TrEMBL record:
Catalytic activity: GTP + H2O = GDP + phosphate + H(+)
CC terms in the record's Gene Ontology section: signal recognition particle
Major localisation: cytoplasm
Region (Disordered): 384-407
Source lineage: Bacteria, Bacillati, Bacillota, Clostridia, Halanaerobiales
Official protein name in the record: Signal recognition particle protein
Biased composition (Basic and acidic residues): 384-394
SMART domains: AAA, SRP54, SRP54_N
Species the sequence originates in: Iocasia fonsfrigidae
Amino acid sequence: MVFQGLAEKLQDTFKKLRGKGKLSEKDVKAALKEVKLALLEADVNYKVVKNFIKKIEIRAVGHEVLASLTPGQQVIKIVNNELTELMGGSKSALSFADSPPTVIMLVGLQGSGKTTSTGKLAKSLKQDGKRPAMIAADIYRPAAIKQLQVLGDRLDLPVFTMGDQSSPVDIAKAGISFAQSNNNDVVIIDTAGRLHVDEEMMDELKSIRQEVKPDEILLVVDAMTGQDAVKVANKFDDLLGINGVILTKLDGDARGGAALSVKAVTGKPIKFVGMGEKLDALEVFHPDRMASRILGMGDVLSLIEKAEASIDAEKAMELEEKLKQNEFTLEDFLDQMEQVRNMGPLDQILGMIPGLSGAGQLKNLQVDEKQLDHITAIINSMTPEERRKPDKINGSRRKRIAGGSGTSIQDVNRLLKQFKQTKKMMKQFSGGAKKMKGRLPFFN
């Protein structure tokens, strides 16, 4: 879970505050001391933590909070607001050129994920109706050009390359001419990185910047490197000038120090975050939504957006009709499960649901993706008739299905029982909605 360690500590601290009918200045200061320690343990920059706590203390020990009927909730609201501001306040959108193509230049150290981020960003822009092209300007890392070409084939998007013998400046310049000729309205340049910031790398990047005049220079940094990521961001901004940051591997960062420090230290916003290895695992960074998730309040807007992008509306309508007719089958069960899985890792999805998003609720919940693979294998080992009419599955059929799916008869029995319970629950829900219709305004 993103920010798991920090989220658990903050939520435990605020749970104590909620439990008190009245708060004293001493109570608030004690809670803020715990918040401060939690942030420092999460590898947040010390100066950032100091200023953050000071701002909250000024607002939280005032008469309006301490004398209110729900002082604990008021303090949490203040922390939520300040946490949102700390990460940038609101989302920071890309700047698009008045006359295409918009040129986006990705920079960063070797291993930060620039090439993969180039592909992810291209896919995101394509889904938004843009016509992106990618330029392979990393001539130093073995297979960097080939990697980008493979991504281009998977995305059905053009990749401009001149091999590894031309200069990156010439490649970038020619790539933009290529994009103009082929009606591409966005160009993403994948540049080379080094193991550390050096003069040679920066001179090359400055030459590319001077030649192509990019509309956006985005620094790609690995969230899991913590404060090192913030230091790298500072250096790149000082020497090159950046417009924003793409923070990769945030899904694997339980601390979150980089995400909470970058904007405050560099003044440059996080524009995107990498939340997994898949090409669709690049998300626009919303400070308010992330603050809400850290404090255990969920993230309904992101959940809805993921559902809209992943779930087929037509199939959803078909499913609704099947539920009305009591025709929900194992094929439908499998289809719904796959659509939910397409939304992303299940622990991330559950973390967006208010009530389930608190670290305490999810701490002991182990989401085993392999179990879902077993369910898929079992259903795929059934005949079409068995999927549609599971009541026909007798002992010999169960043995055959278990053998075909590499599972046990007990696994098959468990799935059939789960399906029966799910079908019953969905039928009750559907029936309940019908009974309510006409009685409540929102069913009319």
